[in-house]
Amino acid sequence: MKKRLHIFLLVLLCIVFQTAAVHADLIFEPEDSFYEKHADACEYVNRSYIVNGYDGETDVYESPESAEKVMTVKNREKYYISFVYTDRNHVKWGFIEDGQENSGWVPMDYMYPVYNSQSFYEEYKDKITPDEGIIPNVTKGDVIYGWTYPGSETKYKIEVMEDTFDYGSTFTDEEGHQWGNVGYYMGNRDFWVCVDEPQNPNLPVREINEEVKEAPEKIDGVPGTSAEVDNGTDKNIRNEKADKQTAENENAAGTGTENIWTAALLVVLTAAVTGIIIKKFFGKKK
């Protein structure tokens, strides 16, 4: 009986491990033909940006290799960018969606990031220390506040589900308040809690640097912004570069699909082996 129990637990552990392995790298990828062909060349950024076009707006293109416009976005509008692709001219392109089934690629030179926890890290990295700790006088059932960054305008309530509440690194603001960073808690990621006053929602709002760089008038390789080439050869040159880039990425394009099939095969094999073991050790004896 003990032997069967040990085998059952081992099989269960294998299933849990396999499931974790499949879901560990789960990222919602865009349904976009260009992305599907160049997935391995795209960087996952997972961040919101604000439009900052040269003349009050900027065009969004079908792909970084196409001159076809799919929509125009206005300055100060906010969009979520999931992936960024860098072309042969070192121009970075971000994939955006407008929430109305329109999507495409926009030059990142015409976008600037919304200030968030990552921005805070970049600005104050020298003042953040890896000091772990527990927020005092907080117990299960208490409600505290999580902040996007120390003194951010965005804050939300968090119910403490354990007897203690831990944090992983600290920052002391200009008012002398100590803040603790929490990597993950009950669905909330990368947020800050005021260690001194965790239940106070009225802490001073931090002034942030919202200075935006002036957008460039021209970007080499971007339609409508590059210097024109005589005899209409600009588009031909662009298409030639696109063909070369596509050829170079043909082998890498299938990698994402191969990974999906590999994960699926592992799950099927695990299920099959599990079924055989269970049938062998737990089946009715004749």
Automatic annotation (TrEMBL):
* Chain segments carrying region Disordered: 215-253
Question: What keywords sit in the KW lines?
Answer: Membrane, Signal, Transmembrane, Transmembrane helix
Question: Which regions span the lipid bilayer?
Answer: 260-278
Locate the compositionally biased regions of type Basic and acidic residues: 232-247
Q: Which domain of life is it from?
A: Bacteria
User: May I ask which residue range the UniProt record assigns to the signal sequence?
Assistant: 1-24
Q: Does the keyword Membrane apply?
A: yes
What is the name attached to this protein's record? SH3 domain-containing protein
Q: Which organism is it from?
A: Blautia celeris
